[in-house]
Amino acid sequence: MTGRNVVFLVLLLLGTAWATFHLKYAMVRLESRSAVLERKIALAVDEIRTLEADLALRTHPDRIVAVAPELGMVPVNVTLLASADTMPDHARVEYADRVLAVLLPSGAEVPARLKPLVINGIAR
Fold it and tell me: What is the largest CA-CA distance in the chain?
């Protein structure tokens, strides 16, 4: 072997060693970053589960029944709602233009717009 070949092989060996060293520590940095992200994901999943459980608890019917009197809520009396007989014939209703006043049990009046019933793309 000539001196040039030896120098070239030594430089090639040093370059390969440097690239291996650099690649190893780049992988270590990426693995630590990956571990941090996995911990953040696990915390986010735990927080989502906690919030879902809290929502389920807050919206559970038994809890709502328990706090309803404190909020002044009362059960709906079906006889106070409008019956189908008191509603105008749907053929005579101008759907988008007519506003009906609906009287609530509390005495308040609320505007309501009627819309046609559509079944399978056919207005009825």
Answer: 109
Give 1's Cβ-side CA count (13 Å radius). 8
Residue-wise pLDDT for 22-77, tens only, equals 999 999 999 999 999 999 999 999 999 999 999 998 888 888 888 888 888 887 76
Helix and strand tally (H, E) in the chain? 2, 4
Task: Give me 97's structure tokens.
Answer: 């233009």
User: What whole-number distance in Å separates Cα of residue 61 and Cα of residue 67?
Assistant: 10
State whether residue 16 is helix, strand or coil. Answer: helix
Neighbours of 68 (CB within 10 A): 12
Chain position carrying tokens 């986010």:
44
Residue 93, number of CB atoms within 10 A of its CB: 16
φ, ψ of residue 75 in degrees (nearest 5): -65, 150
Return the structure tokens found at 101.
Answer: 């006043």
Task: Name the pTM for this structure.
Answer: 0.44
| Type of residue at 76 | V
Domain map (residue ranges) of the chain: 3-67, 77-123
